[in-house]
Amino acid sequence: MTRLVLVALVFMDAAGLNAAELQTLDKSNYDLLVPDGKEVDAIHGDFVLQNDKIIAVIGAPGPERDANLTVHNVGGGVIDLTERDTQSDQLSCFYPGGGGFKFKKRIDWPAEWGKPADGAATIAFEGEATAKNQKGLVHRVGYELRDGETFVRVVSTLKNDGEESVKAPLRDGWRLDGEFKFGAIEGIDLVWGHDLFWRQAYGVQSEEGVTLRTLEMQEPRRPRQFEYGVAGRDESGTLAAGDSVTWRRCLIPAADSLAVQATAYAMRDEDLATGKLTVTDGVDPVANALVTVRQDNQVVGYLLTDAQGGAVSQAPAGEYAVTISAEGHGSMTHEGSLEANPDEIDAEWTVPLKRAGYAEATITDGAGRAIPVKVQFTGLDGAKSPDFGPESAERGVKNVQYTPDGRFRCKLAPGRYKWVASYGPEHDAAYGEITVEAGETATIAAKLPRTVDTTGWLSSELHSHSSPSGDNTASQAGRVLNLLDEHLEFCPCTEHQRIDVYDQHLAAFDAQHRMLTCPGMELTGQPLPLNHQNAFPLKHHVHEQDGGGPQTDPNPVTQIKRLAEWDDKSEKLVQSNHPNTAQMVGDRDLNGEPDEGFEAMFGYMDVQEIHPPELIFDPLGERGDPNSGVGNGGWDNRGNAIQNWLQLLNLGYRVTGVVNTDAHYNFHGSGWMRNWVRSSTDDPAEASVMELVHEFEHGHVVVSNGPFMSVTARSAAQDRRALPGDDLRTKDGKATLRIVVRCPNWMEINRVQLFINGRPDPEHNYTVRSHGDWFGRGTEVFDREIEVELEEDAHLVVACCGEGRSIGPMYGVPEGKTEWGRGMPVAVANPVFVDTNGDVDGDGVVFEPNGDDLGLPLPRLEGRRPSHGHDHPNHHHTH
User: Fold this and answer.
1) Residue pLDDT, tens place only, 583-630
2) Phi and psi angles of residue 2, each rounded to the nearest 5 degrees, phi first
3) How far apart, in Å, do the first and last CA atoms of the chain sit?
4) How many domains does the chain have?
5) How many C-beta neighbours within 10 Å does residue 542 have?
6) Within this chain, do residues 262 and 398 fall inside the same structural domain, yes or no?
7) Looking at the domain assignment, is residue 313 inside a domain?
8) Domain presence at residue 639
9) Among 331, 526, 547, 776, which has the highest number of CB atoms less than 10 A from its own CB?
């Protein structure tokens, strides 16, 4: 019978570290002490416990010590943990007490815990229960790291300092978010979690005699809870006044779940067998093969092969079934047994998988220069589409290869595949098919010419996220690569609840010249979705709490004011994210009755998200219709954002409309919405953040999910042409608009529509069917001047779309992405404000909005005038 093979890491001692130590992080040692990993959240003032095997970061106690948006109250908790030689921190937080305590201060090691081992490093904290029904319950927690040990020893004492008995369950919790697999081994009181792709596992094991079980009350973005049982303790978990209880456990990091288990078995003095596995394709070793180990048809754990296709591990003697699988190689299952032999390897397997093939690509621009590119692979004739990695990954994400320079080599199972290479909507895409043979390399060579002329405009994304935001686990490097591969040229960093930067990733990709960026943030408060605002540029305070950003406030007006005035009222762009416009303008409680709303927010914002842009072609419905488009009626109970924006324009508000992806993961996360913003240079390396801030403030913006459109307006009364966002004077209400639409070869536009004061004008509805000779078939889709004659002041909004067409295939719709925002190609220009008669009523306001409610009014107090935008140099609001 073939014998079982399992995996383990061989560790090497860290040079120069002879004993465990405790250090406090500051500017002088941060880069030397903090481990690597996607989920690192350490800041100055936190504590590092380290020895020659592992590194642990413990949050400093404090009233506002949060790791990120959703991982709160981390003082006294372990926030980063990994092995020294395979650093890949994926721990958000280990919460002693399960997150129900606020640790307020560091304390001396209590005598009742006993003297720490010689050479050990220790730290201890004291905190109080946060629940009202646990008043007087005090939690002391200590961490001990001994020289040479691969785990942190944790000890806790709960004491009731109150005057009445309290329920005091013995609990811990952890935040292991994303693609973690979880398991438990009751016989050794172990719970574990394992992120396969990022090669990091964790375990918690209680001391012998203390039981450990996982609770079922798991909630998203809350600590996964587990509970301990101490012999002789009241089953109700009640702690009488003055009483206390102490328990101990170990927190174990390792590269895989079987290594965690091996450490836990060793702690129980269990005899273990050692197995060695080598996976090949008959010729070459197979790296990153997933090994799934089962016993009695239950998954025991997982591991991955190393670069040489090898894996070594330890496990108790017994019968096992092992399934080995690898992308492009298929899978194979073996059954075997292990017998304990502590002196040598008990079992050695060499397992041959099927040979994979390869795709090797070189993609350039039209002139043969290297460019960032994404390439999608779709299986044909029964071949499965590949799965290179999870949505949190960087270069291989689901069926897509992302590359900063147009070059990559990837494994594919033998078969036929369609491929699509793209670099955003200014470049044509390339298409092809390859046949992949086992052991052979299929080559892909293509040029993506820049066919769409966008001179004078840069494409921008103002709202993106990655793992530092705390509500997702996507690699931030992967987010930046997404942005680069979609040819986005201005992208401030806007993580939730912290000021952050993209600089280090652009440097790693050698792409500083391709994308302009700056520090920024999204201040993310309640109520949702209204109380979310972005701002940039901001001052980044490196490795400080929230990157030096402000705190939230439950009043959206207070919060946006705080953000707008941050950094000593420095000049910045303030963006209102995915707002419910009705709630903001005049329906605070969303009951349909007008009130003061949060209207004062308009006094601090410069731009407002209005996506998805295609809804400009969907008129508002009837009052009471669940999809009316106002208040709770409409997408995600937020109304129809772009129609509501048109209503605001009619009421006299002037706030620039923008669209953004709000991307949180890396599978086609970026690129499918963008803003074309006016720029004095077409080179991102030469562009100015503050110039672009001013252009956004002025409304020199066209929003789009792909098509490029430019709109200018002129009249006999004004020498200067007007751009979107500008005012245009006329003598007789006559204006001339020039509309230019350009598209790459993977997009089609067949309609251009003028909206006058928010309503589509039937006289200016141009389609391929009605005006076929006005539309081109190549890149130059539409280039016409149209005459407009107005009887009153009006804002003119031009939109174009591809009815019956979709951008979805370029953005993952067939592979699992939704159609939302990835359907009909569309672009919408910000309004040109046309004055027909000057300041006729002498109130100092030249442009007079007409007040049209578009058939379904926004709730609004009668007589309320729009709040004025906050002051900036170069602002030119006219009300």
Assistant:
1) 999 999 999 899 999 999 999 999 999 999 999 999 998 887 888 889
2) -65, 145
3) 85
4) 4
5) 14
6) no
7) yes
8) no
9) 547
In this structure, are residues 230 and 210 in contact, taking their beta carbons and an 8 Å threshold?
Answer: yes
Cβ contacts of 367 within 8 Å, gap of 6 or more: none
pLDDT value for 216: 76
C-alpha–C-alpha distance, residues 288 and 286, integer Å: 7
Q: What is the CATH number of the domain that holds 303?
A: 2.60.40.10
Separation CA 715–CA 700 (nearest Å): 19
Instruction: For residue 90, give every residue at least 6 positions away whose Cβ sits within 8 Å of its Cβ, in sequence order, or none.
Output: 37, 38, 39, 82, 176, 178, 180, 195, 198, 200, 202, 473
Kindly state whether residues 248 and 306 are assigned to the same domain: no
How much helix, strand and coil, in percent to the nearest 5, is found in the chain? 15, 35, 50
Residue 16 confidence (pLDDT)? 52
Q: Are 50 and 76 in the same domain?
A: yes
The C-alpha angle 672, 676, 679, rounded to 5 degrees, equals 145
pLDDT digits (tens, 9 = 90+) for 547-570: 999 999 999 999 999 999 999 999
Sign of the CA dihedral with 744 first, then 747, 750, and 755 last: negative
Rounded CA separation 321/333 (Å)? 7
Q: Which residues, in sequence order, are CB contacts of 293 under 8 Å at separation 6+?
A: 4, 6, 258, 299, 300, 301, 302, 303, 315, 320, 321, 322
CA 155, CA 125: separation in Å to the nearest integer?
Answer: 11
Q: Please give the Cα distance from 692 to 170 (Å, whole number).
A: 55
Residue whose structure tokens are 């330890």: 314
How far, in Å, CA of 796 to CA of 794, rounded?
6
pLDDT of residue 418: 98
Supply φ then ψ for residue 342, to 5 degrees. Answer: -65, -15
Whole-number pLDDT of residue 870: 62
CB 515 within 8 A of CB 557: no
How much is the pLDDT for 65? 96
pLDDT at 699: 99
Q: What angle do CA 728, 734, 740 make, to 5 degrees?
A: 70
Sheet holding 47-50, edge to edge: 21-24, 47-50, 54-58, 78-83, 93-96, 170-175, 224-230, 210-214
- pTM of the predicted protein model: 0.95
Strand-pair category, 190-195 with 200-206: antiparallel
Look up residue 210 and give its amino acid: V
Q: What is the pLDDT of residue 8?
A: 31
* CA distance linking residue 496 with residue 473, whole number of Å: 13
Record the tokens describing residue 183, joined without a space: 């398991």
Does residue 365 share a domain with residue 228? no
**E strands, 316-356, where?**
318-326, 330-338, 347-352
Beta-bridged to residue 738, according to DSSP, are: 712, 785
Calpha distance 489→501 (Å, rounded): 15
* Residue segments in the chain with a per-residue pLDDT below the cut of 50: 1-15, 873-879
Q: Considering only CA atoms, which of 346, 263, 270, 357 is closest in space to residue 312?
A: 346
Q: What is the pLDDT of residue 871?
A: 58
- Mark which of 417, 448, 479 sits at the end of a domain: 448
d(CA 499, CA 152): 31
Q: Are residues 185 and 132 in the same domain?
A: yes
Residue 330 token pair: 């298929």
Give yes or no for a contact between 826 and 705, defined as CB atoms under 8 angstroms apart: yes
CATH at residue 426: 2.60.40.1120
Domain check: are 791 and 818 in the same one?
A: yes
Of 407, 423, 448, the residue at which a domain comes to its end is 448
| Residue 152 counted as domain residue | yes
* 210: in domain: yes
C-alpha span between 203 and 176 (Å, rounded): 11
CA distance 653 to 638: 19
In the three-class reduction of DSSP (H, G, I as helix; E, B as strand; rest coil), residue 167 is classed as strand
Q: Which two tokens stand for residue 261?
A: 């288990």
840 and 755 housed in the same domain: yes
Residue 714: is it exposed, middle or buried by C-beta count within 10 angstroms (0-12/13-18/19+)? middle
CA-to-CA distance for 347 and 6, rounded, in angstroms? Answer: 9
